[in-house]
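Can anyone check this?
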Amino acid sequence: MVYQHISEDRKWCAMQLWEQGWPMEDICSSLKVGQSSVYRWLGILEEFGTVIAPPARPRGRPSLLSRLIVNDLVDIFVDPVSGSQASYLDELQLHLALKFDLNVSTATIDRHLTAAGITRKLLHKIAKERNEADHERDCYRRYGRSLRGMRADSMEPFDRGTRVSLVAGIDKTGYIAARAIEGALDGKAFYDFIVDEVLPQMNAFPAERSVLILDNCNIHHSEMLREVV
């Protein structure tokens, strides 16, 4: 039998005729419906008080993230005061663990954010006055999230900050000398480090720490350093 849509009015009409005592054959013949349909509508009417069954409840395991929790995550990306559009998924994962005592995967968080209209995109950096307590450029983030169709902004200092060069000497047991130098490390600074920090801890061959090994960087092989070594 070919399926045909039966309007709610016809279903109610069938129920009224049944209540009035009409035989089932006459109801089906008058309304052009099947007996099984009429009996099904009678069951729905008895159970729900209407001839239209309510929508079936969604099946499957309930989501770990309720609407309240998802809204809390969305606020992180849309709140201009306390939010941060550069937040990472693992940071959101920690946020949920601390605030809601939930352990969910980053994939789950990403899926719920996308469903809520929060999408990943390149950050648009906005210059701000440098803060010494803030991250420098080597910690900047390239990607963030915001509402679909809107730009993701990040307030960041454009000052590159102070560059520091590190130099160290090691043996088989670990570090024996180390020095941090503001700016680039030149030949004079490297010479001073070797003379002041490394050579005092070395001994004449063939004793322990009697061989100095350097790479092929030019400033490591100056004539002045060769003479003192």
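Reply from J.R.: I decoded it. Residues 129-138 have pLDDT under 50 and may be disordered.
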